Amino acid sequence: TSEEKIKRAEAYISKITDLNAKVRIRDMSALPLLVAAYEEKNMEVVRLLINKRADVNQKVEMMEGIVEGTPLMYACCCYERQDSIEFIHLCMNTPGVDLNTKDNNGSTLLDYVDAKIRQLSERGKSSDEWEALRGELETKGAKRGGVRVNFDDEQDEQDESQ
Q: What is the CA radius of gyration of the chain?
């Protein structure tokens, strides 16, 4: 059951953190456990990992291995995930988070949030929650990297128009 999985995860994570290890472990697919828990839509394990000092700045492959960014950037790329903003809030309020980390293209979290707002607007969907998140990030000192982020569907539309 889900409760049994959470208890096993808690026991495993407790053993690791009892050794004062930084929680930077990856699952079998090389995803950081924090991102793997998010992928599995298990926000309880996400909270547990964050409480046990999971590294919210650890790089993760995104966009089919083309880009390497933070778990917060990764959450922006997950279209239509209702828990993306919750995940980002949990991570962005973690001590030691760097809201201005750049991906390997020079984009920051704020650039990803801007791209998410564009994506939702282009699809006629509400971006109110993402716009509020952008305001919170700016208040916390987040900056843009100056490199426009394009999600796959935006790139596909650009390719079709040329």
A: 16
Beta bridge partners of 54: 23
E-strand spans in the chain?
Answer: 60-62, 67-69
Per-residue pLDDT 10s for the chain (162 aa) are 667 766 666 665 555 444 444 444 444 344 566 777 777 787 888 888 888 788 888 888 776 666 788 888 988 887 667 788 998 999 999 999 999 999 988 999 999 999 999 999 999 999 999 999 999 999 999 999 988 888 765 443 433 333
